[in-house]
Amino acid sequence: MPIVQFAPFSSLIQPSFWHELTNIKIDVLKLSDDALPISGSYSVGRSVTDRESGKEIALGCNLSVGSESFDKEFKVAPGSINVTGTFKNYNTIEEFKAADKTALFNKEAEKIWDHIISTRDSSRLNDFLLITFADLKKYKYYYWFAFPAFVSKPAWEIAGDWVTASEEFSGEKLAKIHDQLKSRTTILPYFLVREDGTIAPVEDYSTFFASTPDLSRTVAFLDPSANPSNPGWPSRNLLAYLRALYPESTSTVRVLCWRDGDIPANDAWKSRFGVVELGANATSSNVRPSAVGWEKNPQGKLGPRMADLAPMMDPTR
Fold it and tell me: What's the CA angle centered on 128, arms 249 and 302, to 5 degrees?
């Protein structure tokens, strides 16, 4: 069977973020390189229609940050998921380049894993890391995001292929799922689905599925990917969470990639469905798996990016 290929997060930075970072560097951090909490958000994956071919083109699997990301009372837009992270700014480009990025990354991955094991809470599964250097004289901002995700061994495989959710669920059941998600004060990043379309938070796995056969249980997540064959990055840690806490019933998982912010016309649901499997040699352990997740640069290589805001911010230009 084909190995599941996950669509990695892609950072989407609003210009206002750099303005706020400048203020924080000058007024709060000054010469300190202490880490600060930061927030971001993502929503269902989006696509556009190519005018010439008529084909749907998937947009990036985006995690967005803006000026509000440093606010303690950070609030996301309706239908979006709030994610938390660690922000660390360096005072010189040399310090930024010399930073022990492996240690920083492993520290974040360890926090996510410890939170899974100790609390069974899924709210930290998408925690991220952002390191920066702000060259305030030239208005250039060097940055590197990491979105830690645990590596499954053996790898997850897809039985058959990903299909439209309407091939597995009736339009009535999908509408029921949609209405339940909308009725909640905060949208669920991860949730469970029974055969009748009833949903519950993923933390309720044992009780919610108590009388549901393993092969009738569906695990779902709000999917920031719009690629028909690639579920978004959040599903990696969701599957790791399930394997860590419920290994006896999760070597095969029915996955619903929820991509519908609204009920579509003509039953043209964008959500996807697939059955993923680990195979007969699957084992479970409370030992943290290895993790991956540093964002690649525009050249497709592992390395930082740079935002040049001189045209916008330099008063001499």
Answer: 105
> What is the residue-wise DSSP string for 217-235?
-EEEEE-----TT--BTHH
How far is it, in rounded angstroms, from Cα 238 to Cα 234? 6
What was the pLDDT predicted at 317? 58
* Digit-coded pLDDT (tens) for 115-157: 999 999 999 999 999 999 999 999 999 999 999 999 999 999 9
The neighbour count for residue 59, using CB atoms within 10 Å, is: 15
pLDDT of residue 8: 97
Look up residue 34 and give its two tokens.
Answer: 């202490």
Read off the pLDDT of residues 175-226 as tens digits, 9 standing for 90 and up. Answer: 999 999 999 988 899 999 999 999 999 999 999 999 999 999 999 999 999 9
Q: What is the signed CA dihedral for 96, 102, 108, 109, rounded to 10 degrees?
A: 160
**Cβ distance 220 to 256 under 8 Å?**
yes
Q: 291 and 284 in contact (C-beta within 8 Å)?
A: no
Q: Where are the alpha helices (DSSP H) in the chain?
A: 15-24, 93-98, 101-119, 171-183, 205-208, 234-245, 310-313
Q: Is the Cβ–Cβ distance between 199 and 191 less than 8 Å? A: yes
Question: Is 106 buried (19+), middle (13-18) or exposed (0-12) by CB count in 10 A?
Answer: middle
Q: pTM higher than 0.90 for the full model?
A: yes
Helix (H, G, I), strand (E, B) or coil at 287: coil
